[in-house]
């Protein structure tokens, strides 16, 4: 089972601060989505609305066609794991896993046990005494084993070391293929995790500035490499994201559409056209001089 999501003109204000500014989008169920944004862009506020942690005051949020706030039939199908952790005073790892089994209708106890072993979680240890990495691993275990039709990870894997993060990415993809669901990943680790995203949403100062299939977004830029004078000619008039040069060879990363004719001429001249990195595009789209006034 998967859940689609619809946001219609959603605005969230905290006093004079606008955390979300007239945000609208639709997400098809059964995909992995990347939610990107700088600190303070509104990502956590948006995810809190989806998980019914706060009511919607302006606009409408629909999860599976229904409003999630104070709707148990929806909220039991949504699992949000946050970076801040899920510790309950005095609770052990086993206690939290048992609570998840009681409140998550699709809980897979066998899978939870396998993940606990994979991440070497001490089941008898109090959660508050776990290391940051162990707390992240516990959140990931609960998020994956919940089998929730909408599963959300809000930077919840940042405490893991690099090998453990890659274990998580591989496990998420493997399990997603076997147990399709809607997954939203909020992350700053774009280069690491971007390969998982089927679609990308970018928030900037509360506004949705991009929602594209990942492949389409990456096609909006290119890395052009070859003799410096030819590279300069092909990239003239495009927005340059970065440049590197060694002797007479130059590589320029650009943002902007390169026509099929220009691509053909570039290749005929011996230039290489490669994909641009998702992180480079994100940095460009959320750069201060690109954003304009608040």
Comma- or semicolon-separated keywords:
about 290 residues, alpha/beta, 6-stranded mixed β-sheet, 4-stranded antiparallel β-sheet
CATH superfamily descriptor of the largest domain: P-loop containing nucleotide triphosphate hydrolases
CATH topology of the largest domain: Rossmann fold
Count of DSSP strands: 13
Describe the sheet with the most strands: 6 strands, mixed
Looking at the structure, what is the overall shape? globular
Portion in strands: 25-35%
Polypeptide structure, described:
The protein is 34% helix and 29% strand. It has 294 residues and is α/β, with parallel strands linked by helices. It folds into 2 domains: 5-215, Rossmann fold (3-Layer(aba) Sandwich); 221-275. The strands form 3 sheets. Strands 5-6-7-3-8-9 form a 6-stranded mixed beta sheet, with helices on both faces. Helix 4 runs antiparallel to helix 5 (132-145). The longest helix is centred in the middle third of the chain and has 17 residues, at 162-178. The chain is globular. The chain starts with a strand and ends with a helix.
